[in-house]
From TrEMBL:
It is an enzyme of class 2 (transferase). Belongs to the acetokinase family. The keyword Acetylation does not apply. Its cofactor is Mg(2+); Mn(2+). Keywords: ATP-binding, Cytoplasm, Kinase, Magnesium, Metal-binding, Nucleotide-binding, Transferase. The lineage of its organism: Bacteria, Pseudomonadati, Bacteroidota, Chitinophagia, Chitinophagales. This is Acetate kinase.
Length: 398
């Protein structure tokens, strides 16, 4: 069974074609800078047992155009990996916000489309794009079932004490204002990997998804008990361009004393804060380089970034009443050994201590980097949202 996974962001579209249930990757790639003049598509195919990656420049004014180019590449008469769109049985889509309506992967019907549209105000940068990709894919793959896999679903059953805000109850009843959590597809995947690796079905884990967007999750067994992102993806940890936690009175002060509009404040929190606001750079690789060269702002940004993570680690150990494993995943979590060391520094009293030699080894799949003398396992786990989406797609009853 061929399953195509579409993982669309605000200006990108990742895709991966699987042969399931064997989980063989037939083709993968990403369309980047959608809507910009420098738009391109990277595609990786297996040729004679070896992966070959090519980059092609394309005019990609929107995600519909990107989808069309992706389908053309997949079905290319000479370099394609399928003969026709009819070969694809399922198309799985990452949808950022499922609200309280969706707790698992769902076959897309007209009613599901309408519900995703109703949730546009909750994820205005993502849900409209996700729905558009669903609609375009349905046209390109008419024989395939379209499946929505929601980033909020893993956190759907958060305990009420973790999900609710201390504001008048009417705002929850009328507007459904609560913490929803995000990065759920990634947190679900890596915590399953950790439970299998440790052979500990009810493991108490803190999962750290550290990329351009960052979130922490407290997970016991297969259940999310708390997570750092809340009503929106702005809250929680310091991120590439998002502020993370901030006293709401700061925003009221800026609006009152500087006359900022809500739209301006929204841009400030989402696009101009976080590492970008602290250093003028949003990529941790650039900040690491600047810090090594003695840039004081970059050095401070790294300390603040790590401090916020430590604060969540401490609080989540309390939530879990103990800790079996600390998990690092996503771009920074998987590849930045110095940040992992900075996060874990000074936590030996909590049973958390990194082995510097293991931590410095090149990344090759899931691996343990903790000191053997400490009780808490520290694991680096490459996330694979596309594979998790494909697995959830084929798990839906026929």
């Amino acid at each position: 069974m061929k399953v195509l996974v579409i993982n669309a962001g605000s200006s990108s579209l990742k895709f991966r074609l699987f042969d399931m249930p064997g989980e063989q990757v037939l083709c993968s790639g990403i369309a980047e800078r959608i809507g910009e003049a420098e738009a391109s598509i990277h595609i990786t195919r297996s040729v004679n047992g070896k992966d070959q990656t090519t980059e092609q420049q394309h005019a990609l004014p929107d995600h519909a155009a990107a989808m069309q180019q992706v389908v053309s590449l997949l079905c290319h008469p000479e370099q394609g990996v399928i003969q026709s769109p009819e070969e694809v049985a399922l198309v799985g889509h990452r949808v950022v916000h499922g609200g309280e309506s969706f707790s698992s992967a769902t076959i897309v019907t007209p009613a599901v489309r309408e519900k995703i549209k109703e949730l546009f105000p909750f994820a205005p940068l993502h849900n409209p794009i996700n729905l558009r990709c669903l609609e375009v894919a349905a046209d390109f793959f008419p024989a395939a079932k379209q499946v929505a896999v929601f980033d909020t679903a893993f956190h759907h059953e958060l305990p009420p004490e973790a999900a609710r805000y201390a504001i008048p109850h009417a705002y929850y009843e009328q507007d459904k204002i609560r913490a929803y959590g995000f990065h759920g597809i990634s947190h679900k995947y890596v915590t399953e990997q950790a439970r299998d690796f440790l052979d500990l079905p009810q493991a108490k884990m803190i999962s750290l998804h550290l990329g351009n967007g960052c979130s922490a999750a407290a997970v016991e067994g297969a259940r999310s008990l708390d997570t750092s992102m809340g009503f929106s993806p702005v809250s929680g940890l310091v991120m590439g361009t998002r502020s993370g936690d901030i006293d709401p009175s700061v925003l009221l002060h800026l609006m009152t004393h500087h006359g900022y509009s809500t739209a301006y404040v929204d841009q400030l929190l989402n696009k101009r804060s976080g590492l970008q606001g602290l250093t003028g750079r949003h990529d941790m690789r650039d900040i690491d380089k600047a810090a090594e060269e003695g840039d004081g702002e970059a050095q401070f940004a790294r300390r603040l970034y790590a401090y916020r993570i430590k604060r969540y680690i401490g609080s989540y150990i309390a939530v879990l009443n103990g800790l079996d494993a600390l998990l690092f995943t996503a771009g920074v979590g998987e590849h930045d050994s110095s940040m992992r060391a900075l996060v874990c520094d000074g936590l030996s009293h909590l049973g958390i201590e990194i082995d510097p030699v293991l931590n410095g080894l090149p990344a090759t799949g899931i691996r343990a980097i903790h000191s053997g003398a400490r009780p808490v396992k520290i694991l680096v786990i490459p996330t694979n949202e596309e594979l998790e989406i494909a697995r959830q797609c084929i798990a839906i009853p026929a």
